[in-house]
Amino acid sequence: MQSWHKTSSILSIIFGTALACSAHPVDMPHHITFADSAHTKELNINVQLLDSLAITNLSKAKTHYDNSMSVRLFASGKFTDAFLFDTRVKVNTDYTNRYINFNYYNPDEGLPYNKQSEHKRTWDLFAANVSYNLEPVNLLAGFDFLEWGPARRNHVILRGERNFYRPWQDSSSRIPDAAPTPYFGYQFTLGPIEYTQYAAKLYEKKNFGKYFHAHRLKLNLPKEITLGISETSLYGTTTEAAGTNPNPDSDSTGREFEWAYVLPFIPYVFQEHLQGDQDNISLAFDLSVKTLPNWEFYAELLWDDMKSPTSMFDDSWWGNKWATTLGVARDNFEIGPVNLNWIFEYTRIEPWVYTHHKGNAYTYASYAQSLGSDLGPNSQEVHTEVTATYNFIKATLFFGAVAKDTAFGGNIRDLHTPESAMDKKFLNEETTLRYKELGFTLSLTPWEWFSFRTSYTRFFGDFKGYRAYAVGSVQW
Q1: Keywords, A to Z (predicted)?
Q2: N or C terminus of the chain with fewer C-beta within 10 Å?
Q3: pLDDT tens digits for 127-142?
Q4: Could you write out the three-class secondary structure of 247-306?
Protein backbone atom coordinates (compact mmCIF):
# COMPACT_ATOMS: atom_id res chain seq x y z
CA MET A 1 0.00 0.00 0.00
CA GLN A 2 1.35 3.43 -0.91
CA SER A 3 1.93 5.77 2.01
CA TRP A 4 -0.03 8.98 2.43
CA HIS A 5 1.80 12.06 3.65
CA LYS A 6 1.64 15.83 3.77
CA THR A 7 4.52 18.05 2.62
CA SER A 8 4.87 21.73 1.86
CA SER A 9 4.31 21.00 -1.79
CA ILE A 10 1.22 18.93 -1.12
CA LEU A 11 -0.37 20.81 1.78
CA SER A 12 -1.11 24.33 0.63
CA ILE A 13 -3.39 27.20 1.50
CA ILE A 14 -6.12 28.01 -1.01
CA PHE A 15 -7.90 31.26 -1.48
CA GLY A 16 -11.03 31.19 -3.62
CA THR A 17 -12.87 34.06 -5.16
CA ALA A 18 -16.03 32.25 -6.15
CA LEU A 19 -19.11 34.16 -5.06
CA ALA A 20 -21.74 32.43 -7.13
CA CYS A 21 -24.63 30.62 -5.50
CA SER A 22 -22.56 27.49 -5.63
CA ALA A 23 -18.82 27.83 -5.89
CA HIS A 24 -16.91 25.07 -7.60
CA PRO A 25 -13.50 23.76 -6.54
CA VAL A 26 -11.94 24.66 -9.87
CA ASP A 27 -12.58 28.30 -8.96
CA MET A 28 -10.26 28.00 -5.98
CA PRO A 29 -6.64 27.06 -5.49
CA HIS A 30 -6.38 23.94 -3.36
CA HIS A 31 -6.40 24.34 0.40
CA ILE A 32 -5.42 20.91 1.64
CA THR A 33 -4.23 18.14 -0.65
CA PHE A 34 -3.59 14.57 0.41
CA ALA A 35 -1.72 12.46 -2.12
CA ASP A 36 0.47 9.45 -2.39
CA SER A 37 4.11 9.89 -3.34
CA ALA A 38 3.43 9.31 -7.05
CA HIS A 39 0.33 11.56 -7.08
CA THR A 40 -1.71 8.77 -8.66
CA LYS A 41 -4.27 9.27 -5.89
CA GLU A 42 -5.23 12.73 -4.72
CA LEU A 43 -7.80 14.41 -2.48
CA ASN A 44 -8.27 18.19 -2.39
CA ILE A 45 -10.35 19.80 0.35
CA ASN A 46 -11.75 23.34 0.41
CA VAL A 47 -13.92 25.27 2.87
CA GLN A 48 -15.85 28.47 2.28
CA LEU A 49 -17.94 30.62 4.64
CA LEU A 50 -20.38 33.15 3.17
CA ASP A 51 -22.76 35.73 4.55
CA SER A 52 -25.10 37.77 2.37
CA LEU A 53 -27.83 40.39 2.66
CA ALA A 54 -30.42 41.37 0.04
CA ILE A 55 -32.76 44.35 0.35
CA THR A 56 -35.64 44.40 -2.12
CA ASN A 57 -38.04 47.32 -2.51
CA LEU A 58 -40.60 46.86 -5.29
CA SER A 59 -43.89 48.66 -5.91
CA LYS A 60 -45.85 45.40 -5.86
CA ALA A 61 -44.58 44.28 -2.41
CA LYS A 62 -43.35 45.70 0.85
CA THR A 63 -39.62 46.12 1.44
CA HIS A 64 -38.06 42.85 2.53
CA TYR A 65 -34.69 41.87 3.92
CA ASP A 66 -33.13 38.48 3.29
CA ASN A 67 -30.01 37.32 5.09
CA SER A 68 -28.33 34.03 4.21
CA MET A 69 -25.36 32.42 5.95
CA SER A 70 -23.69 29.45 4.31
CA VAL A 71 -21.01 26.88 5.07
CA ARG A 72 -19.63 25.16 1.98
CA LEU A 73 -17.35 22.17 1.71
CA PHE A 74 -15.58 20.92 -1.42
CA ALA A 75 -13.69 17.76 -2.20
CA SER A 76 -12.15 16.80 -5.52
CA GLY A 77 -9.37 14.63 -6.81
CA LYS A 78 -8.64 11.30 -8.45
CA PHE A 79 -8.34 7.63 -7.64
CA THR A 80 -6.21 7.13 -10.77
CA ASP A 81 -5.26 9.46 -13.60
CA ALA A 82 -8.37 8.22 -15.41
CA PHE A 83 -10.81 8.11 -12.46
CA LEU A 84 -11.76 11.62 -11.30
CA PHE A 85 -14.29 12.84 -8.74
CA ASP A 86 -15.73 16.11 -7.53
CA THR A 87 -18.24 16.81 -4.74
CA ARG A 88 -19.54 19.87 -2.93
CA VAL A 89 -22.13 20.60 -0.29
CA LYS A 90 -23.55 23.74 1.29
CA VAL A 91 -25.64 24.27 4.40
CA ASN A 92 -27.65 27.49 4.56
CA THR A 93 -29.45 29.39 7.28
CA ASP A 94 -31.82 32.07 6.00
CA TYR A 95 -33.51 34.92 7.84
CA THR A 96 -36.20 37.19 6.38
CA ASN A 97 -38.82 39.67 7.53
CA ARG A 98 -41.36 37.83 5.36
CA TYR A 99 -43.47 34.90 6.46
CA ILE A 100 -42.04 31.48 5.53
CA ASN A 101 -44.53 28.75 4.67
CA PHE A 102 -44.11 25.16 5.79
CA ASN A 103 -42.33 22.80 3.41
CA TYR A 104 -43.32 19.14 3.31
CA TYR A 105 -40.50 17.82 1.12
CA ASN A 106 -42.76 17.45 -1.90
CA PRO A 107 -40.75 18.05 -5.09
CA ASP A 108 -43.56 20.14 -6.59
CA GLU A 109 -42.91 22.65 -3.78
CA GLY A 110 -39.37 23.20 -5.06
CA LEU A 111 -36.13 22.42 -3.27
CA PRO A 112 -36.83 21.29 0.31
CA TYR A 113 -36.10 23.30 3.44
CA ASN A 114 -36.77 23.13 7.19
CA LYS A 115 -38.90 25.88 8.65
CA GLN A 116 -37.40 26.88 12.01
CA SER A 117 -39.73 29.80 12.73
CA GLU A 118 -41.95 32.24 10.88
CA HIS A 119 -38.87 34.08 9.63
CA LYS A 120 -36.10 31.47 9.65
CA ARG A 121 -35.33 28.37 7.60
CA THR A 122 -32.41 26.03 7.04
CA TRP A 123 -31.63 23.99 3.95
CA ASP A 124 -28.82 22.12 2.30
CA LEU A 125 -27.81 21.15 -1.19
CA PHE A 126 -25.09 18.96 -2.62
CA ALA A 127 -23.70 17.98 -6.01
CA ALA A 128 -21.20 15.33 -7.03
CA ASN A 129 -19.85 13.69 -10.14
CA VAL A 130 -17.32 11.06 -11.19
CA SER A 131 -15.78 10.22 -14.55
CA TYR A 132 -13.72 7.29 -15.76
CA ASN A 133 -11.77 7.66 -18.98
CA LEU A 134 -11.58 4.57 -21.19
CA GLU A 135 -10.28 6.15 -24.39
CA PRO A 136 -12.13 6.95 -26.58
CA VAL A 137 -15.09 6.55 -24.15
CA ASN A 138 -15.52 8.56 -20.97
CA LEU A 139 -17.98 7.11 -18.44
CA LEU A 140 -20.00 9.69 -16.48
CA ALA A 141 -22.16 9.58 -13.35
CA GLY A 142 -23.26 12.00 -10.68
CA PHE A 143 -25.89 14.00 -8.86
CA ASP A 144 -25.17 17.29 -10.52
CA PHE A 145 -26.26 20.01 -12.93
CA LEU A 146 -26.58 19.33 -16.67
CA GLU A 147 -25.73 22.22 -18.99
CA TRP A 148 -25.59 22.43 -22.78
CA GLY A 149 -25.10 25.22 -25.28
CA PRO A 150 -22.91 28.31 -25.76
CA ALA A 151 -25.29 30.94 -24.33
CA ARG A 152 -23.58 33.28 -21.86
CA ARG A 153 -26.78 34.03 -19.88
CA ASN A 154 -29.98 32.19 -20.91
CA HIS A 155 -29.66 28.57 -21.96
CA VAL A 156 -32.89 27.37 -23.54
CA ILE A 157 -31.82 23.69 -23.74
CA LEU A 158 -30.19 22.78 -20.39
CA ARG A 159 -29.37 25.66 -18.04
CA GLY A 160 -27.28 23.76 -15.52
CA GLU A 161 -26.68 25.71 -12.32
CA ARG A 162 -27.62 29.14 -13.66
CA ASN A 163 -30.37 31.17 -12.06
CA PHE A 164 -31.10 34.89 -12.09
CA TYR A 165 -33.26 37.15 -10.01
CA ARG A 166 -36.75 37.43 -11.52
CA PRO A 167 -39.14 39.73 -9.60
CA TRP A 168 -42.21 37.59 -10.33
CA GLN A 169 -40.46 34.56 -8.81
CA ASP A 170 -39.40 36.31 -5.59
CA SER A 171 -40.83 34.32 -2.68
CA SER A 172 -39.80 33.48 0.86
CA SER A 173 -41.22 29.98 0.30
CA ARG A 174 -39.02 29.14 -2.68
CA ILE A 175 -35.32 28.28 -2.81
CA PRO A 176 -33.97 30.17 -5.83
CA ASP A 177 -31.10 27.78 -6.58
CA ALA A 178 -31.28 25.40 -9.53
CA ALA A 179 -31.87 21.72 -8.75
CA PRO A 180 -29.27 19.00 -9.44
CA THR A 181 -30.30 15.62 -10.80
CA PRO A 182 -28.89 12.08 -10.54
CA TYR A 183 -27.60 10.75 -13.86
CA PHE A 184 -25.27 8.36 -15.61
CA GLY A 185 -23.92 8.57 -19.12
CA TYR A 186 -20.94 8.44 -21.42
CA GLN A 187 -19.03 10.49 -23.94
CA PHE A 188 -17.28 9.47 -27.17
CA THR A 189 -14.57 11.61 -28.72
CA LEU A 190 -13.52 10.69 -32.24
CA GLY A 191 -11.45 13.42 -33.87
CA PRO A 192 -13.64 16.50 -34.35
CA ILE A 193 -16.77 14.59 -33.27
CA GLU A 194 -17.96 14.48 -29.67
CA TYR A 195 -21.04 12.51 -28.64
CA THR A 196 -22.52 12.85 -25.13
CA GLN A 197 -25.47 10.97 -23.63
CA TYR A 198 -27.22 11.15 -20.25
CA ALA A 199 -29.96 9.19 -18.50
CA ALA A 200 -31.35 10.96 -15.45
CA LYS A 201 -34.08 10.88 -12.82
CA LEU A 202 -36.20 13.95 -12.17
CA TYR A 203 -38.43 14.80 -9.22
CA GLU A 204 -42.08 15.82 -9.51
CA LYS A 205 -43.99 13.93 -6.79
CA LYS A 206 -42.95 11.58 -4.00
CA ASN A 207 -42.78 7.93 -5.07
CA PHE A 208 -43.71 8.78 -8.68
CA GLY A 209 -41.03 8.08 -11.28
CA LYS A 210 -40.02 10.80 -13.73
CA TYR A 211 -37.16 10.25 -16.17
CA PHE A 212 -35.04 12.29 -18.54
CA HIS A 213 -32.73 11.35 -21.39
CA ALA A 214 -30.52 13.60 -23.49
CA HIS A 215 -27.91 13.10 -26.16
CA ARG A 216 -25.86 15.59 -28.16
CA LEU A 217 -23.63 15.38 -31.21
CA LYS A 218 -21.01 18.12 -31.24
CA LEU A 219 -18.98 18.89 -34.36
CA ASN A 220 -15.78 20.91 -34.00
CA LEU A 221 -15.49 22.46 -37.45
CA PRO A 222 -12.64 24.50 -38.98
CA LYS A 223 -12.33 28.24 -38.25
CA GLU A 224 -13.29 27.76 -34.57
CA ILE A 225 -16.89 26.88 -35.44
CA THR A 226 -18.83 24.45 -33.23
CA LEU A 227 -22.20 22.95 -34.12
CA GLY A 228 -24.32 20.95 -31.70
CA ILE A 229 -27.41 18.84 -32.40
CA SER A 230 -29.28 17.36 -29.43
CA GLU A 231 -32.47 15.59 -28.43
CA THR A 232 -34.20 15.15 -25.09
CA SER A 233 -36.86 12.71 -23.96
CA LEU A 234 -38.97 13.08 -20.84
CA TYR A 235 -41.71 10.91 -19.32
CA GLY A 236 -43.10 9.71 -16.02
CA THR A 237 -45.99 8.29 -14.03
CA THR A 238 -49.13 10.42 -14.00
CA THR A 239 -49.15 12.69 -10.94
CA GLU A 240 -52.63 14.19 -11.32
CA ALA A 241 -55.64 12.57 -9.70
CA ALA A 242 -57.64 10.21 -11.91
CA GLY A 243 -60.17 12.02 -14.08
CA THR A 244 -58.70 15.51 -13.61
CA ASN A 245 -56.82 15.67 -16.94
CA PRO A 246 -59.33 15.65 -19.83
CA ASN A 247 -56.71 14.81 -22.45
CA PRO A 248 -57.60 11.23 -23.50
CA ASP A 249 -54.02 9.89 -23.62
CA SER A 250 -52.96 11.13 -20.22
CA ASP A 251 -55.04 9.57 -17.46
CA SER A 252 -53.54 7.20 -14.85
CA THR A 253 -50.45 6.17 -16.79
CA GLY A 254 -47.66 4.31 -15.01
CA ARG A 255 -44.19 4.56 -16.51
CA GLU A 256 -40.87 2.92 -15.73
CA PHE A 257 -37.34 3.64 -16.90
CA GLU A 258 -37.00 3.00 -20.64
CA TRP A 259 -33.61 1.34 -21.22
CA ALA A 260 -33.83 1.72 -25.00
CA TYR A 261 -33.05 5.43 -24.57
CA VAL A 262 -29.65 4.51 -23.10
CA LEU A 263 -28.41 3.06 -26.39
CA PRO A 264 -26.15 5.42 -28.36
CA PHE A 265 -26.82 7.07 -31.71
CA ILE A 266 -30.54 6.18 -31.88
CA PRO A 267 -32.72 9.23 -32.68
CA TYR A 268 -35.23 9.63 -29.88
CA VAL A 269 -37.96 10.71 -32.28
CA PHE A 270 -37.78 7.25 -33.91
CA GLN A 271 -37.32 5.36 -30.64
CA GLU A 272 -40.40 7.03 -29.18
CA HIS A 273 -42.58 5.71 -32.01
CA LEU A 274 -41.59 2.12 -31.20
CA GLN A 275 -42.60 2.74 -27.58
CA GLY A 276 -46.08 3.98 -28.36
CA ASP A 277 -45.50 7.66 -29.25
CA GLN A 278 -46.14 8.76 -25.67
CA ASP A 279 -43.07 10.74 -24.52
CA ASN A 280 -42.10 14.43 -24.52
CA ILE A 281 -39.43 14.69 -27.23
CA SER A 282 -37.57 17.85 -28.19
CA LEU A 283 -34.91 18.64 -30.77
CA ALA A 284 -32.29 21.37 -30.35
CA PHE A 285 -29.44 23.02 -32.22
CA ASP A 286 -26.62 25.21 -30.98
CA LEU A 287 -23.90 27.11 -32.83
CA SER A 288 -20.75 28.92 -31.72
CA VAL A 289 -18.56 30.89 -34.15
CA LYS A 290 -15.20 32.16 -32.86
CA THR A 291 -13.57 32.73 -36.25
CA LEU A 292 -12.70 36.34 -35.38
CA PRO A 293 -10.17 36.50 -32.51
CA ASN A 294 -11.80 37.38 -29.16
CA TRP A 295 -15.29 37.43 -30.71
CA GLU A 296 -18.04 34.85 -30.36
CA PHE A 297 -21.36 34.71 -32.22
CA TYR A 298 -23.65 32.08 -30.79
CA ALA A 299 -27.18 30.71 -30.95
CA GLU A 300 -29.39 28.07 -29.34
CA LEU A 301 -32.67 26.84 -30.80
CA LEU A 302 -35.06 24.45 -29.06
CA TRP A 303 -37.93 22.80 -30.91
CA ASP A 304 -40.16 21.58 -28.11
CA ASP A 305 -42.91 20.53 -30.48
CA MET A 306 -43.84 21.45 -34.03
CA LYS A 307 -45.99 20.27 -36.93
CA SER A 308 -43.08 20.88 -39.32
CA PRO A 309 -40.06 23.21 -39.58
CA THR A 310 -42.04 25.45 -41.92
CA SER A 311 -44.76 25.95 -39.28
CA MET A 312 -42.33 27.49 -36.78
CA PHE A 313 -43.92 30.95 -37.03
CA ASP A 314 -47.49 29.72 -37.41
CA ASP A 315 -49.45 30.92 -34.37
CA SER A 316 -52.66 29.14 -35.37
CA TRP A 317 -51.59 25.99 -33.47
CA TRP A 318 -50.51 26.16 -29.84
CA GLY A 319 -48.17 23.18 -30.30
CA ASN A 320 -45.69 25.08 -32.46
CA LYS A 321 -43.44 25.51 -29.45
CA TRP A 322 -39.88 26.80 -29.77
CA ALA A 323 -37.32 28.91 -27.93
CA THR A 324 -34.12 30.61 -28.99
CA THR A 325 -31.18 32.58 -27.66
CA LEU A 326 -29.01 34.68 -29.97
CA GLY A 327 -25.87 36.38 -28.74
CA VAL A 328 -22.59 38.09 -29.49
CA ALA A 329 -19.63 38.50 -27.15
CA ARG A 330 -16.33 40.38 -27.24
CA ASP A 331 -13.69 39.08 -24.84
CA ASN A 332 -10.29 40.35 -23.70
CA PHE A 333 -10.46 43.90 -25.02
CA GLU A 334 -7.64 45.71 -23.26
CA ILE A 335 -7.43 49.41 -22.52
CA GLY A 336 -4.17 49.91 -20.69
CA PRO A 337 -4.21 47.69 -17.58
CA VAL A 338 -7.99 47.16 -17.77
CA ASN A 339 -9.47 44.05 -19.40
CA LEU A 340 -12.97 44.46 -20.85
CA ASN A 341 -15.60 41.89 -21.84
CA TRP A 342 -18.97 42.60 -23.45
CA ILE A 343 -22.02 40.48 -24.28
CA PHE A 344 -25.36 41.14 -25.94
CA GLU A 345 -28.04 38.47 -25.83
CA TYR A 346 -31.63 38.08 -26.96
CA THR A 347 -33.91 35.29 -25.70
CA ARG A 348 -37.40 34.43 -26.92
CA ILE A 349 -39.54 31.61 -25.53
CA GLU A 350 -42.89 30.91 -27.18
CA PRO A 351 -46.11 30.11 -25.26
CA TRP A 352 -46.43 26.56 -23.91
CA VAL A 353 -42.70 25.76 -24.27
CA TYR A 354 -41.54 23.28 -21.57
CA THR A 355 -45.17 22.30 -20.79
CA HIS A 356 -46.94 19.09 -21.81
CA HIS A 357 -50.61 18.17 -22.23
CA LYS A 358 -50.14 14.94 -20.25
CA GLY A 359 -49.39 16.87 -17.10
CA ASN A 360 -46.50 17.47 -14.74
CA ALA A 361 -44.93 14.02 -15.21
CA TYR A 362 -43.99 15.16 -18.72
CA THR A 363 -43.09 18.82 -18.16
CA TYR A 364 -39.52 19.98 -18.76
CA ALA A 365 -38.93 20.51 -15.05
CA SER A 366 -37.60 19.04 -11.83
CA TYR A 367 -38.33 20.31 -8.31
CA ALA A 368 -40.80 22.77 -9.91
CA GLN A 369 -37.98 24.45 -11.85
CA SER A 370 -37.43 24.54 -15.59
CA LEU A 371 -34.52 22.50 -16.92
CA GLY A 372 -34.27 25.17 -19.63
CA SER A 373 -34.38 28.93 -19.16
CA ASP A 374 -35.76 30.15 -15.85
CA LEU A 375 -37.75 32.77 -17.79
CA GLY A 376 -40.30 30.05 -18.50
CA PRO A 377 -42.79 29.93 -21.40
CA ASN A 378 -44.11 33.03 -23.19
CA SER A 379 -41.28 35.36 -22.30
CA GLN A 380 -38.55 37.50 -23.78
CA GLU A 381 -35.34 39.14 -22.60
CA VAL A 382 -32.81 41.51 -24.11
CA HIS A 383 -29.66 41.71 -22.01
CA THR A 384 -26.29 43.42 -22.40
CA GLU A 385 -23.40 43.91 -20.02
CA VAL A 386 -19.85 45.20 -19.91
CA THR A 387 -17.31 43.82 -17.43
CA ALA A 388 -14.04 45.53 -16.55
CA THR A 389 -11.28 43.79 -14.59
CA TYR A 390 -8.31 45.55 -13.04
CA ASN A 391 -6.05 43.81 -10.58
CA PHE A 392 -8.35 42.52 -7.79
CA ILE A 393 -11.33 44.66 -8.87
CA LYS A 394 -14.05 43.44 -11.21
CA ALA A 395 -16.99 45.67 -12.15
CA THR A 396 -20.00 44.90 -14.36
CA LEU A 397 -22.55 47.35 -15.74
CA PHE A 398 -25.70 45.73 -17.15
CA PHE A 399 -29.03 46.60 -18.74
CA GLY A 400 -31.96 44.32 -19.52
CA ALA A 401 -35.51 44.47 -20.82
CA VAL A 402 -37.78 41.60 -19.80
CA ALA A 403 -41.32 40.67 -20.84
CA LYS A 404 -43.30 37.86 -19.20
CA ASP A 405 -46.87 36.91 -20.14
CA THR A 406 -48.95 35.77 -17.17
CA ALA A 407 -51.82 34.40 -19.29
CA PHE A 408 -52.65 30.72 -19.74
CA GLY A 409 -49.68 29.05 -21.44
CA GLY A 410 -47.14 31.23 -19.63
CA ASN A 411 -46.56 28.91 -16.69
CA ILE A 412 -44.66 25.64 -16.98
CA ARG A 413 -47.43 23.87 -15.02
CA ASP A 414 -50.25 25.08 -17.29
CA LEU A 415 -52.16 22.19 -18.85
CA HIS A 416 -53.55 22.49 -22.37
CA THR A 417 -56.81 20.56 -22.80
CA PRO A 418 -59.24 19.89 -25.67
CA GLU A 419 -61.31 22.83 -24.39
CA SER A 420 -58.35 25.24 -24.58
CA ALA A 421 -57.82 27.64 -27.48
CA MET A 422 -55.93 26.03 -30.35
CA ASP A 423 -53.99 29.15 -31.29
CA LYS A 424 -51.35 31.00 -29.30
CA LYS A 425 -50.44 34.62 -28.66
CA PHE A 426 -46.89 35.69 -27.93
CA LEU A 427 -46.74 38.40 -25.23
CA ASN A 428 -50.35 39.55 -25.20
CA GLU A 429 -50.38 43.25 -24.35
CA GLU A 430 -53.17 42.89 -21.76
CA THR A 431 -51.51 40.16 -19.69
CA THR A 432 -47.77 40.77 -20.14
CA LEU A 433 -45.54 42.20 -17.43
CA ARG A 434 -42.76 44.37 -18.85
CA TYR A 435 -39.88 45.92 -17.01
CA LYS A 436 -36.36 47.15 -17.52
CA GLU A 437 -33.42 46.69 -15.17
CA LEU A 438 -30.27 48.76 -14.92
CA GLY A 439 -27.53 47.99 -12.47
CA PHE A 440 -23.98 47.21 -11.57
CA THR A 441 -21.97 44.56 -9.75
CA LEU A 442 -18.67 45.20 -8.00
CA SER A 443 -16.42 42.34 -6.89
CA LEU A 444 -13.29 42.78 -4.78
CA THR A 445 -10.64 40.25 -3.84
CA PRO A 446 -8.06 42.31 -1.93
CA TRP A 447 -6.65 39.18 -0.33
CA GLU A 448 -6.71 35.63 -1.57
CA TRP A 449 -8.57 34.45 1.51
CA PHE A 450 -11.32 37.09 1.37
CA SER A 451 -13.79 38.18 -1.30
CA PHE A 452 -16.61 40.70 -1.36
CA ARG A 453 -19.29 41.43 -3.93
CA THR A 454 -22.07 43.97 -4.03
CA SER A 455 -24.71 44.78 -6.61
CA TYR A 456 -27.51 47.27 -7.12
CA THR A 457 -30.35 46.92 -9.62
CA ARG A 458 -32.98 49.51 -10.44
CA PHE A 459 -36.28 48.34 -11.95
CA PHE A 460 -38.57 50.35 -14.23
CA GLY A 461 -41.94 49.47 -15.73
CA ASP A 462 -44.46 47.03 -14.27
CA PHE A 463 -41.93 46.35 -11.51
CA LYS A 464 -40.62 49.57 -9.99
CA GLY A 465 -38.02 49.84 -7.26
CA TYR A 466 -34.60 48.46 -6.46
CA ARG A 467 -32.70 45.45 -5.18
CA ALA A 468 -29.40 45.79 -3.32
CA TYR A 469 -27.23 42.80 -2.56
CA ALA A 470 -23.94 42.23 -0.76
CA VAL A 471 -22.00 39.04 0.05
CA GLY A 472 -18.69 38.41 1.71
CA SER A 473 -16.76 35.16 1.85
CA VAL A 474 -13.77 33.67 3.56
CA GLN A 475 -12.22 30.60 1.99
CA TRP A 476 -9.26 28.36 2.56
Answers
A1: Lipoprotein
A2: N
A3: 999 999 998 999 999 9
A4: CCCCCCCCCCCCHHHHCCCCCHHHHHHHCCCCCEEEEEEEEEECCCCCEEEEEEEEEEEC
